[in-house]
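Protocol step 6 of 9: fold each sequence in the batch and record its structure tokens directly after the sequence line. For illustration, a two-sequence batch is reproduced in full.

Sequence one:
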Amino acid sequence: MMLPQGPITDFLNHDWVQFWLLPGLTALALAIWAGIADRRRLRRNRPDAVGWMPWQGIGFWSSFAALLLLGAALRGWLTTP
């Protein structure tokens, strides 16, 4: 199956989009999700009901990865002819 040609598919065919922008946006979404989950964990009603996911660490590392990946995507976008 071939994708229809147009401005969207031309944009998605750039290397910097596939290797830097899309993973960076995924890491940013994970960081936002981890931040929301950590906030819910901190505001729980039962203090003894501690979860097992390290949301603070997941949020930190995914936002760090998002920063690096989106910075590389910006550099790729600026250097694309």
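Sequence two, same batch, same settings:
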Amino acid sequence: MLTDTSTSAGRAVLLHDRYPTLEELADTAHLLAARHPELCRVRTVGTSRAGRPLVLLTIGRATATADVLIVTGAHADEFSGRAGIVELAHRVLARPSLHQAVTWNFLLCLDPDGARLAAVGAGTRSLPEYFEHYFRPAAEEQPEWAPAIGGRLPESRILLDLIDDLRPSLQFSLHSADVGGTFLQSTCDPAGLAEPFATSAAGLGIPVETGPYDAFWLREAGPGVFMMAPHHIDQQESSTGMLAPPHADRPHLDQPHPAQPQQATGGVRATTWFAPQRYGGETVIVETPAWASAHLGDTRPADDPHARLTACADQVRERGRLLTDLLDEALPHLDDTALLRAARTPLTAARQLAHEWDPRAAGQRLLHPTPMTEAKLVGIELWAHRIPVRAAALLRRAAEAAKAPTTPATARLDHLLQTWCAQYQRRFQPTWLPVARQAEHQANTVQAAVALSHPTMPGARPDR
């Protein structure tokens, strides 16, 4: 690693084993620009719905002939990317060969409003504590995804305009999950990335997730490396509620921002992931776990998939019903907050996933024609735990904010959250992955992808 511990973000990563705060990221960006004025500049590219700045750090020379764009903070509950860009920015500055032909653009956080609501969770080290402070916005309030369902967020428009301005040859979106392994999704054929990706993961002790449900229908170019086919993503996200239209009680989401042109609903192709293709560019999504689990890479045929799919469907269906009943009980006392809106997305997913997984219903198609591997089935089992825990965590925070009128519901939600989180831990035995290793793997993967895309750039490949 090359992260500089003289910067506040670098100290967070290397000395304190924690993710940098947004303030530390901005502080580090300005410090790097002050140290290297001939190479670095920092600018605000827009403001969020709540008026928070979206900050871009650019590293490169005027003679560079290509741009890459690295985006973090697309999901408020995913913090690895903050550390990843700190490591990557210091690598680029330390190796002249990396910034001679390519300009590197780091969008420090795409959703600073969501990050504020998730801020406490970024400092936690246990799964129960993480979910106690959990926040992930409703689907239509997630800037990367909102255009797919007609949501018109200023953050989405800022990123799309930035892509139009930079025309990046590659866009990277740095993501993470609570429990799991690492995997990649790409809008282009990612076969060349499979080897350096696997080498980095193995060297850092990070399990490769070969059956993530996020990529169940995608073509696998190598272990844990998937090509994003739009029709397959649309098919899958329709089953999880992600392609549902904005809630009818939130008509303002259907009104364009005054500074934005009209934007039609267009499925996954309308997301920010596919925008670089207008200029011959592509997007790579890098997923890294916060807590690693060793149960997600087994490519052997699954044992008794019919019964286990049935159990997953029954579990997520029953937990969704319990939470829906508690929501109905508490709803008269709850304001329309970001927390309440957020809770509806995993509740919708719970209902629809139960149908999609149940072999007595749509789940039959999961078993044919592709053989169900142990990794794919375990990936579904992981979601059967994760989705209800997320919903309970969000609903609990919404109820807790309403105080006295919702006290009984809050107590029941506390009990459910503790019980389900304990079961989640017992099933997957998660192990904390040090932040420096999360960062190094993301930086290795981005650097390898840039080297493959710009093979004439000297010294582009990671050392590992």
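Proceed to step 7 once all outputs are recorded. Observation for sequence two: The radius of gyration is 21 Å.
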